[in-house]
Amino acid sequence: xxxxxxxxxxxxxxxxxxxxxVFRAVANPEDDFTGVVVGDTKCISPTYNVFFYFNPFVTxxxxxxxxxxxxMEVYELTKDIKVMLLLKPSGDxxxxxRSKTRKKPYLISCNKTAKSCLKGREYDPCFSKDFxxxxxxxxxxxxxxxxxxxxxxDSMKTDLKSVVDYIQISEDDRNIKGSPELVLYPLQSRKVDxxxxxxxxxxxRHNKFNYKHLTSLxxxxxxxxxxxxxxxxxxxxxxxxxxKDL
Length: 246
Hints:
- The longest helix is centred in the middle third of the chain and has 11 residues, at 146-156.
- It is globular, with a radius of gyration of 18 Å.
- It is an alpha+beta fold.
- The mean pLDDT is 94.
- The strands form six sheets. Strands 1-2-8-11-14-6 form a six-stranded mixed sheet, with no helix packed on it.
- It has one domain (2-243).
- The protein has helices at residues 31-34, 63-66, 129-134, 146-156, 200-205, 221-231, and strands at residues 2-6, 9-16, 21-24, 36-38, 41-44, 50-53, 71-77, 81-85, 107-109, 125-127, 138-143, 170-171, 177-178, 181-184, 195-197, 211-218, 232-234, 241-243.
C-alpha cells in the first residue's frame, strides 16, 4: 500500500498482483479491449472503465442485469497494477462523488468528465483529468457500491449461502461491507484523449493491456464452483484467486 499527496489530500493506492484472476459477466467481451462502437469505428475514452469482481458469484445476486448472460468471462492480470484504494484504511469511498459532504477533487461522477466518445454514468466515479495527468500509472480503483453491497448481503443469507466461503468481503470508510469491485482502464498506458480504432484486431496486436482473457465458463453455479475448486488456488495474502496453470 502507498499513500500519495494530491492537493493536500492523502490518496491511498493499492497494488493488485500480476496473475490475479478477475471475473466479469458481459455480453461482448471484445469491448473490454477495444471500447464502444462509434459509427464505423470503436473508441476508448480516457476514463473508460471495465468492471470486475474477484470471484464469479457476486453477479448471481443481480439477476436483473446478469441472468440473460450465458457465460462468465475469466481474466488474468498481466502485470502488477496500481489502483486507487476506496476501502479501509483509505478515507475515500466509491460513493464520494455523489456525496455533499465527502467530495474530493480527484474523484468525480463519470457524467461530469470532459466530453468524449463515451458519456459516463452519474453513479460511477471517475478520476479528474488533472489526477490522470499527475498519476498516469494509476489505472483504476477498487471499492464497494452501497446498493450492490446490501443486495449481496441479503443474497449471501439465501441464494448464495452455499458459496459464501468463495466470496471476498471488504469494508470501506462508510462501514459498508461487500465484495470489492475492481475497475480498470484496459491499457497499461493511459491516454488522455479518445482512442479511435478502425481495425480492432490489428490494434490489439500492437497494444499492451492490464489483463488478458483466460477462458469463458458456462454461467452456472456448478461450472463456476468446479472452476474455483479445481483450477484455482487462493492467495493467502490477498484472498484473491490465482490459476493453478501458472
